[in-house]
Design brief:
This protein has 11 helices and 11 strands. The protein has 329 residues and is of the alpha/beta class. This is DHHA1 domain protein.
Length: 329
C-alpha cells in the first residue's frame, strides 16, 4: 500500500470511530473549498447516516446555492472529529471553536507548509482538493464498497472545474480528466451547474469593467491592480468578490505574472497569478503561499506592495531570460 493508501485507511478508521464529525474549509471559500467540504459531508452521510455530520464556515453569496453551513458553538465540538479540507495553513481555517481535545484531519492539495492535523493527507500532484477526495472515495469503494451519491459527484465536479479554470489551467492532468469523466456519469445537470457558476451581479459586472480600465503594467511581463476600500464601496463589492476577477487579466498579451492588491483596512491582501514563473516562494516571503502558479500574500501597506512588485518583476525577468523569451515593446 502506498503512502496515500495508508493515509486513506487512517482517515477512514477515524471516521468510523467517531459519531460526530465537523467539517471545515478555508476563509473566503472558492468552488473547490465548497466542493471538497460538501462532498466529504455527503460521502460520510451517505454511508454512515447514523452519524452527526456538520459543515461550518461563512457562506459565500455566489456559492451558497450549493449548500449552507450550520452555526456552531463550542459545546458542539465535544467528542467531535474535525476534518479540514482545502486549507493550507492553520490561520486560514474558517472557524476555530475546536480545541486541542479534538482530533484534526487535514485534506489538502497545497504545498504542505503547515501540517496542523493529527493526520495530514496532502497531495500536491492533484488539480484540487476535490480531485483528492474522489481518489479517497475510489480507495474506499474498492476496499469497503463505499458509495458516492449524485450530490457529492456534483460538488466534486464543481470543485475540479473551479480550480482548473474549466480545465484550461496547467494543473489539469490526465487523471483530472479521468476523474471528471467519471463524475459526469452521475445524475446532475452539468450545464445548469456551470451556468450558475457564471452568474454575477450587476455590481460585479461593472467592477470587472473597472479591472480592465485600471490595471497597470509594472514591468515587462508583470501587471497589477490596486483596489482601495473606496473602489469597493463605489461598486458595492467585497474583497471576496473582487478576488473572483483575478484571472480576467490572464489573456493579456505578453503577460507572465500579475496580482490584485486589495485593501482590507489593516492590511493589503495580494492575489498573485502566473503563466509560467514560480510565484509561491515569492508569496511565502510576504506572509503567504500557495501553488507555483496561483498564490496569495499579505503586505502591511502600499509601500510594501512596491517591494513585492519589485520581487515579482525580478522573478519574471529571470523566467524570461532562462526561457529566452523576448517581449516586443
Amino acid at each position: 500500500m502506498d503512502i496515500y493508501g495508508n493515509l486513506y485507511e487512517e482517515i477512514f478508521q477515524k471516521i468510523k470511530e467517531n459519531d460526530k464529525i465537523i467539517i471545515h474549509r478555508h476563509e473566503r471559500p472558492d468552488p473547490d473549498a465548497y466542493g471538497s467540504q460538501g462532498a466529504m459531508y455527503q460521502l460520510i452521510k451517505e454511508n454512515f447516516p447514523e452519524k452527526t455530520v456538520i459543515t461550518v464556515g461563512k457562506d459565500s453569496p455566489s456559492l451558497e446555492f450549493l449548500f449552507k453551513n450550520s452555526e456552531v458553538i463550542e459545546e458542539d465540538y465535544k467528542d467531535a472529529l474535525v476534518i479540514v479540507t482545502d486549507t493550507a495553513n492553520f490561520p486560514r481555517i474558517d472557524g476555530k471553536l475546536f480545541t486541542k481535545n479534538n482530533f484534526l484531519i487535514k485534506i489538502d492539495h497545497h504545498p504542505p507548509l503547515d501540517n496542523y492535523g493529527g493526520i495530514n493527507l496532502v497531495n500536491t500532484d492533484v488539480s484540487s482538493c476535490s480531485e483528492l477526495i474522489y481518489n479517497f472515495y475510489e480507495y474506499l469503494n474498492k476496499n469497503y464498497g463505499i458509495k458516492l451519491n449524485d450530490e457529492a459527484a456534483k460538488l466534486l465536479y464543481l470543485g475540479i472545474v473551479g480550480d482548473t479554470g474549466r480545465f484550461l489551467f496547467p494543473n489539469t492532468s490526465n487523471d483530472t480528466l479521468r476523474v471528471a469523466s467519471e463524475l459526469i456519469k452521475y445524475d446532475f445537470n452539468m450545464s445548469a451547474l456551470l451556468d450558475k457558476m457564471e452568474i454575477i451581479s450587476e455590481n460585479i459586472m461593472r467592477f470587472r469593467a473597472f479591472i480592465f480600465e485600471n490595471y497597470d503594467v509594472y514591468q515587462d511581463g508583470v501587471a497589477y491592480l490596486k483596489i482601495t476600500k473606496e473602489d469597493m464601496d463605489k461598486y458595492g463589492v467585497d474583497p471576496g468578490e473582487v478576488s473572483t476577477g483575478v484571472n480576467l487579466l490572464r489573456s493579456l498579451k505578453d503577460l507572465y505574472a500579475w496580482c490584485f492588491a486589495i485593501d482590507e483596512g489593516n492590511k493589503v491582501r495580494v492575489r498573485i497569478r502566473s503563466k509560467g514563473p514560480v510565484i509561491n516562494t515569492l508569496a511565502e516571503k510576504y506572509a503567504g503561499g500557495g501553488h507555483p502558479l496561483a498564490s496569495g500574500a499579505t503586505v502591511k501597506n502600499w509601500e510594501e506592495l512596491d517591494d513585492l512588485l519589485d520581487d515579482m518583476a525580478r522573478v519574471v525577468a529571470e523566467y524570461l531570460r532562462e526561457n529566452n523569451i523576448k517581449i516586443e515593446n
